[in-house]
Amino acid sequence: MIVKSMQHQREIRTQVMSTRLAAKSAAIVLLTALALTACGKKDDQALQGAMPAMPVTVIELKATSVPISAESVAQTEGAKEVEIRPRVGGILLKKLFNEGEPIKAGQAMFQIDPVPFQIALADAKAQFSQQKARAEQAQREAKRLQGLIASQSISQREADNANSDFALASAGLLQYEASVLNAELNLSYTTVISPISGIAGRFEFSEGALVNANTSLLTKVSQISPIWVRFSLSDSEAAQLGARLTQANVKEVALILAGGEEYAHKGKLNFAASTIDPQLGTQQLRATFENADKRLLPGQFVRIRVTTGHRDGVFVVPQTSVLTNDQGKFVFVVNEKNEATIRPVVVGNWIGQDWVVLSGLKAGEKVAIDNIIKLRPGAVVSPHAKGQVPAVASKSAKQPI
């Protein structure tokens, strides 16, 4: 009996200890679950605090009027470009100008050895004097014989021969006179002058060289005030302007320099081809610009903007805000709920750094112009006007670190 009572007591103690261990395990599990729940809430709160609405700059759309224009690459050229070649051959004695300097019309540029031409002129004058003496002698003889016909001292044939000799002598005199004029002209050609005012080019020879008449290129002179600009427009570019360009329908021609600066003077269209180049599919055009300060030089590559009118009721947005997908071009519009939505648009040409939007937008809508790559359709954003501090950024800046 005593042994059974002791076993029973041991069983009771074992059950009590098991109950106590189970209670402790349950308490530990409960505490762990509560701790994990608390940590999860803290993590969620941290994540919510770390991902605020994305700040984006927006512009509110207003309908405006823009020019109907098109741009094209162009190249400048002298309004007049003359190749200076000698009209007589000989030894080039001296260069009388500075390369790259302004030249006036009629200014002497080169001196060719004049001595051979001076000798040729003296010889022509001598022959002219001899022939003049013969003509005078023939004239006197014809007059003398004409007086003898009345007295029938000579025959009519002798008188006629005398008159013929005088006529031949007079014709020879004209021939030698022409030779004198030709010799004088050749002598004058030994001083090579510029036919136009402009800028002198590079000297192609050296002093002392032998040059040939009409073939040796000595230098070039380019008239650059005014200056011409050659360019062309394709069929599609002409379609943007409304029609084929003529001097009548072009309202303005502007020149844009290589650095993006617009030239101070406006130009005028002075040539428009009446046909389309079949090989390039373009219309050849040319404009003239004032260039009194010699800022433009022949051969420069520039851009030309041709304006034919104005288009009303369109919108202008920065180029960076216009994206492209499989369906065409689109922008992100921020709605009343501050959500970014995709809006397909039809664009025209560029104006500076902006796109002209022809359709797809309405006045008063807000278009996102930065953080475009990070935006997704339906994303909540924090819009702010251009130049203002984003609301999220200003709020976080006040919080202590």
Question: Could you please describe the fold and organization of this structure?
Answer:
This protein is an alpha+beta fold and 401 residues long. It has three domains: 54-66 and 313-387, Beta Barrel (conserved putative lor/sdh protein from methanococcus maripaludis s2 fold), CATH 2.40.420; 70-77 and 226-309, Elongation Factor Tu (Ef-tu), domain 3 (Beta Barrel); 86-211, OB fold (Dihydrolipoamide Acetyltransferase, E2P) (Beta Barrel). Helices cover 33% and strands 34% of the residues. The protein has five helices and 20 strands. It has helices at residues 2-50, 115-150, 156-188, 235-241, 391-398, and strands at residues 54-60, 64-84, 90-95, 102-103, 108-112, 191-193, 198-200, 210-211, 219-234, 252-256, 268-272, 282-289, 301-318, 323-325, 328-334, 340-344, 346-351, 354-359, 366-368, 381-385. The strands form three sheets. Strands 2, 4, 7, 9, 10, 11, 12, 13, 17 and 18 form a ten-stranded antiparallel β-sheet that branches. Helix 2 (115-150) runs antiparallel to helix 3. Residues 1-5, 33-50 and 393-401 have low confidence and may be disordered.
